[in-house]
Amino acid sequence: MTRLAEPGPSPGAAGPRPLVSAAAAASSSRSTLASSSDSEPGGASPPPPPQPHGPPPPRKKQRLSASGSGPGPHRRRRRLRPVLPSSAGSSSMQQQQPQPQAPPAQGLPSTNGAQPGHLSAANGQLPHGGPGPGLGLGLGLGLGLGLGLDTATLGPHTESQPPAASGRKKKRLSRADEDVIRLIGQHLRGLGFNQTVEQLMQETGCSLEHPSATKFRNHVTEGDWEKAEADLTELKSLVHLPQAIVRMKFLLLEQKYLEFLDDGKVLEALQVLRFELTPLKYNTDRIHALSGYLMCSDAEDLRAKAEWEGKGSLSRTKLLDKLHTYLPPSVMLPPRRLQTLLRQAVELQRDRCLYHNTKADTNLDSVSLLMDHACSRRQFPCYTRQILTEHCNEVWFCKFSNDSTKLATGSKDNAVIIWQVDPETHQLKLLKTLEGHTYGVSYLVWSPDDTYLIACGPDDCSELWLWHVQTGELRTKMSQSHEDSLTCAAWNPDGKRFVTGGQRGQFYQCDLDGNVLDSWEGVRVQCLWCLNDGKTILASDTHQRIRGYNFEELTDRNIVQEDHPVMSFTVSRNGRLALLNVATQGVHLWDLQDRVLLQKYQGVTQGFYTIHSCLGGMSEDFIASGSEDHKVYIWHRKSELPVAELTGHTRTVNCVSWNPQIPSMLASASDDGTVRIWGPAPSLDGDDPEGCSSNSPADS
Predict the structure, then answer these.
(1) d(CA 299, CA 265)
(2) Which run of H or of E encompasses 429?
(3) Strand order of the sheet with strand 586-591?
(4) What is the C-alpha to C-alpha distance for residues 598 and 614, in angstroms, rounded to an integer?
(5) What is the band of 12 on the pLDDT scale with cuts at 50, 70, 90?
(6) How far apart are CA 675 and CA 263, in angstroms?
(7) Distance from the Cα of residue 511 to its chain's centroid
(8) Are 394 and 412 within 8 A, CB to CB?
(9) 608-623 mean pLDDT
(10) The dihedral of CA 331, 334, 336, 338: what is its sign?
(11) What is the CB neighbour count within 10 angstroms for residue 633?
(12) Helix (H) or strand (E) holding 418
């Protein structure tokens, strides 16, 4: 049994050394041996069994005095020199763990009757279970006993003290944290979790809204208009706009007036109109309209004329939405603020998605808020779904009808083919062929109602054909002079007139019978477009520009000026954007209203051949163009680099057309004599089908 060495008395110590009685020493020895034999390694010893006969022997002589080593005050302090236990004797050094009992007197740790010099240490564990080596234990408790230190000096006894979590200082919330908590609270309150909101605000120390605003909201919801008006006095100091209180009071009184009428209380409503609304001297036009509601026959008539939901929670909720606009967010949050922010975030992600080509749904239930929005290019129209090979020569032009049900293609073989689009399978089948064109067909344009189709030829063609699509009959064959060059045309929005022209200086406005209504001399036209106002005709000419012509006022003005020839152009459905194919430069996007160049798109190979590009997709967010390198290029309108390059044609791609109603369908016409129909990948399993490559890092 390894013991702590007991040094002898210091030199010069006064008095003889007191001796412990033999009986006490024997009792202490027996107690130590019993404790060592009953203890398990690494754990606390069980309490000793009760003595069956008589009281336990007195232990008074074994207690240490406060000074450390003797029973009396004259004993000199002893210095304990710890001795590290050997592996063989480690079990003999283990002492019984202290049992729960009253705290020791004078702040001294209890020794449970251990002999002086024998410190309780089981496998190097502190009495309260904390880790620590035997050497540190011996030094710490030995110094505490020898020097008379209390437990505060040695450190807190963690077994008897609860954790200090309750005294932990609360984290100071940032302004952003407080805003988020308020947004969550407002959303939870809208769902009916009022107790949860109260607990959240209490725990965080935040306030969902100003107390005055809470009272005001409750009074408006309950229809207590007198108290709601009184609340405006408290809110006056919190409102920034001087006239806000007057406007808010007007809205309250308007609701009060309408509810009286809805209940059939005409006299009360008249009192509100005369003595409360009119004295405000605000929005007299609205007061006149409100006075007219006195003549309504019943409540249904009132709700119809006033465009009002009637008395109840629905109309009062809408009233609160209007009142919110006059209160700063620090006083009262705007209605459904969290939903508004989430909706904005979803819309922003959709705008940044390079392949988003589906109908925008503003309902948050249709999307997942747990992940970012991302569309796969496999859903994008960049895979060959069908190849049309009925033309026997170069295909110069293709164009979908306005209702998306047909596709017209024109070729060097002098034929126009009308294709029928299956709305279910998105497959095309030949509907009819329009033949008889002498010089080939290089340009096609559908009438606004898709009843007629105009076909124009190349530069040396002086004829224009006007076909009736349904019957396949030629309505008009127009030719003013053999020297004319009618290479392009555009329909007036009324569908009763069209304009046509060419590079030899002809520019005509005609009716459906081919009669020239107006003409503009000396304009060498490359491409034409009629704006939605029905008056302005855009024409690109040989001066590298696009000008606007008004045949009624006989005026013209410059709109777009380029540095190179404009080979062709098209205009967006809203008439705001113009997409140009510029010789040797590629594809340019212009804002016609501001007359500024928005974007130059890279990748396409454009020489001096006429190539027709288009805008397309669900919201015309995409741009497609053919190219002399046999590819079809697709860009997102906001990105100058292509998101997809479609391969498959073997010669120049002259024209592309995006289906206006089926955003996943794109057609391309090429000098290789084929028309390709592009669509999404045929299946979502397996490798990508051949025909689509992408330069975008956003591919998924």
Answers:
(1) 11
(2) strand 428-435
(3) 566-571, 577-582, 586-591, 596-601
(4) 16
(5) very low
(6) 69
(7) 52
(8) yes
(9) 92
(10) negative
(11) 27
(12) strand 415-421
- Within 237-307, residue ranges assigned H as helices are 244-262, 266-272, 284-292, 299-306
Contact between residue 45 and residue 39 where contact means Cβ atoms under 8 Å apart: yes
Report the distance separating Cα 501 and Cα 529, nearest Å. Answer: 11
The DSSP bridge pattern shows strands 596-601 and 586-591 to be antiparallel
Distance CA 570, CA 577 (A): 8
Q: What is the pLDDT of residue 697?
A: 40
Confidence of residue 179 (pLDDT cuts 50, 70, 90): very high
Give the pair of three-digit tokens for residue 296: 């309504």
pTM score over 0.70: no
d(Cα 145, Cα 148) in Å, to the nearest integer?
A: 5
Task: Identify the band that residue 166 occupies on the pLDDT scale cut at 50, 70 and 90.
Answer: very low
Q: DSSP per residue over 483-528, as a string? A: T----EEEE-TTSSEEEEE-TTS-EEEEETT--EEEE-TT--EEEE
CA neighbor of 676 nearest in space, from 642, 650, 637, 694: 650
List 529's β-bridge partners, or say none: 538
Percent helix, percent strand, percent coil in the chain, to nearest 5:
25, 25, 50
Between 600 and 503, name the one with better pLDDT.
Answer: 600
What gap in Å lies between CA 359 and CA 376, rounded to an integer?
15
